[in-house]
Structure formats: structure tokens, C-alpha cells
Amino acid sequence: MAVAYERIADELRQSIRAGELRPGDRLPAESKLAEQYRRSVPTIRDALRLLRDEGLIEKQHGRGNFVRQPRTTVSRSNVRHQWEKDRAREPKPVRLETGATEHDTGLQMNDLAFRASYREIKADERLSGIFDVPEGTTMLERAYRTRYTVETAPFGLVTSYIVRDLIAGNPDLLDEGNEPWPGGTQNQLFTVGIELDRMEEHVTARPPTPEEAAELELPPGTSVLVLRKTSFDTDGRVVEMSDVTLPGDRTEMLFTTPLERW
Q1: Are 81 and 242 in contact (CB under 8 A)?
Q2: Residue ranges of the chain that CATH labels 3.40.1410.10
Q3: Model pTM?
Q4: How is the beta sheet containing 224-233 ordered, strand by strand?
Q5: CATH class (in words) of the domain with range 74-254
Q6: Where in the chain is the domain with CATH 1.10.10.10?
Q7: Rg of the chain (C-alpha set)
Q8: How do residues 108-125 score in pLDDT, each as one tens digit?
């Protein structure tokens, strides 16, 4: 049987889902809710804490509790990779029309704010093992953040690694100022004669670090999905690897597996 604070939280939850309390609405003060439900203020606080943990409300310092604006959901499907490969050889005007984030969210390019930063690093033991290169090999580390312009948190935290000499034949690929690149990484690799054969994606879940929770603006108790995407060329060589940290409260992973007919 539900305890008092759970029943109160359920009533408020139903009001939010029914639209009686809309995003941005301020909830009554804790004392008013205590009077309304004929319960103590600590019981009300327990109910509100439960709703905050679910991401339904947020507490604004000095102002009270507000219904949280729902965040844009990202549906990430494995078929996106073939979609990207099909676009990699299209003319630039076609590639400029849309990108992977728009594909995953249904948003338009002018709905998005994008930021990229590049730096050169030396391959450590981990990267040396993944790329099968000597430790100390110069790598290009690329960090990406994309967000909906009406929101403040990015859709995810993306860090990509690539051997610098692999793409140095096209100097444009070494300049973060050319991002967002029309056609993404697959077109970048195409410009230096590399065709991808397959992707491997390894997904795990874990609690976020404090820094991840702050940047992704996660409700308390929300886990992150950690995706490692490894890209192989047609010779079986690893040519790019990305570590992607995704917010568990607004990310859907969809895997479609075509089956051969008997």
C-alpha cells in the first residue's frame, strides 16, 4: 500500500500528465499543499522530491517548484549509419539540408546550436589498442555538443578519435572551423578515399559523473547510456572511434535487424 507522500506525488503526477499543471507552472507553496492534503510539510517535501527525481518538476532557488519543461527525445536507430553512408557521396547542397541530429530528433537545422572543438593528443594504451597503432601516435580528438536552441542542455556528450595522419591529406578536416561538416564523418572519410564497411556499437549504463550530470542537466538518480561506436573501413581497419554519453531520461535506442528469408 502506498504511503502518504507517494499518494500525494501520484495525484500531482496525474495533474501534470493530464495537462492541468502545464510546463512552467508553479506549484502551490509547500505550506499550501500541506493544508490541501492535510499532511505535514515534511510529507509534502517527500512527495515533491519524488517528482523531482522523476524529472517532472524542478526547484528554482527562492521561487518554488515548477513543472519541468519536457526535453526533446532523441531516438537513435542503427539504420542511421546506412542513411549517413547513402548521403556521403551526395553533392554538398544535398548534404547541407540535414544531418544525423535532425534525423534522430525530427528538428530542423535552424533549430539547433552546434559546437565543436579539436585538439591533438598522443595515443595512450587504450587508443593504441583500439586503432592498432603505436603508443604516442598523434590522434585528433574531436568534441561535439549539439542542443535544441530553446533548451540549455546538449543531446549528448560526444568525443571522437581519429589518427591524424589518416586524414591529413585533406587539411580542411583538421580545422574545427569547418564544423558542422555536411555529411558528417562518413563524408569526411570519403574525401580521403575511405569507405566504411561496418560499425560496432557497445552500449552500457551507469550513474553519471557530477560533471556529466551538470552538463546534461539530469534529474537526480538518472543514469546515462554510454555508447562506444567503432568504425571499420572495407579493409577491416579501425578508422574512427566515438565515445558518446547520452541522458537516460530522454534517449531511446532503437535497433532494427533485417533477417534473411529462408
Answers
A1: no
A2: 74-254
A3: 0.82
A4: 112-122, 138-148, 157-163, 238-247, 224-233, 196-206
A5: alpha beta
A6: 4-67
A7: 23
A8: 888 999 999 999 999 999
